[in-house]
Amino acid sequence: MQAYAREHVGGLTAVLSAVSLALVFGAVLGYVPKAMLPRLDPLVELVPHLNAVISAFAIVTILRGVRAIRRRDIETHRASMLASAGLFALFLVLYLYRISLEGPSEFGGPDVVYQYLYLPMLAIHILFAIVAVPVVYYVLLLATTRPTSALPETRHARVGRVAATLWLVSFALGICIWLMLHVLF
After folding, report:
1. What whole-number distance in Å separates Cα of residue 106 and Cα of residue 124?
2. Are residues 9 and 141 in contact, defined by beta-carbon separation less than 8 angstroms?
3. Alpha carbons 63 and 60: distance in angstroms, whole number
4. pTM, 2 dp
5. Can you give the residue ranges of every domain in the chain?
6. How much of the chain is helix, strand and coil, in % rounded to 5?
7. Which CATH fold would you assign to the domain 2-184?
8. Is a pLDDT exceeding 90 seen at residue 1?
């Protein structure tokens, strides 16, 4: 299986990205039947706050991974980036659960903030998150299907810098959006 994955990183990236984005858009657009999911009201209400905490931890693990690779500490880099991927997966499961049951959150602040701050921030957050999905999958698949010694021969480092940047900005903007939706307004 690993040999197949090693030879088909691009195809697997495309399939995983399509499935992931289809799940997100399906949930956001209301195509996931609510009856399929158990409704745990305390969890539904906690998800935005849990996801803000998860996002903050993900930022820390990504920064730790970037710092580690700059110091040539490959094991710490690998552990940090795999932790980041795990945190993102947890974030996504919780997000999909809540949005499938509740739909998107309504912005309750002033129109001027909505138009000139919230919407542009949300647009960049969504764009970066969408673009990050295949980039992150690609880097993760390269890293998990090859020995560490073979990674310099791949585009892992170059694409990884893009992935980390997209991930960091998306997580940071997600926290800002959470602040506007659930704390400030």
Report:
1. 18
2. yes
3. 5
4. 0.92
5. 2-184
6. 85, 0, 15
7. Four Helix Bundle (Hemerythrin (Met), subunit A) (1.20.120)
8. no
Q: Which residues of 51-88 are buried (b: 16+ CB within 10 A; e: fewer)?
A: bbebbbbbbebbebbbebbeeeeeeebbebbebbbebb
Rounded Cα distance, 133 and 6, in Å: 19
Q: Using CB atoms within 10 A of its CB, is residue 27 exposed (0-12), middle (13-18) or buried (19+)?
A: buried
The answer to whether the beta carbons of residues 167 and 63 sit under 8 Å apart is: no
Which tokens belong to 174? 């997600």
Q: Yes or no: say if 23 and 100 are a contact pair by the CB < 8 Å rule.
A: no
Tell me the residue type at 75. E
**In one letter, which amino acid is 120?**
P
Q: Which two three-digit tokens encode residue 150? A: 């073979």
CA–CA distance, 179 with 185 (Å, rounded to integer): 8
The percent of residues above 70 in pLDDT, for the chain, comes to 100
Q: What is the pLDDT of residue 2?
A: 76
Residue 72, phi-psi category: left (phi > 0), alpha (psi -120 to 50), beta (remainder): left
Number of H helices, E strands in the chain: 7, 0
Q: CA-to-CA distance for 123 and 42, rounded, in angstroms?
A: 29
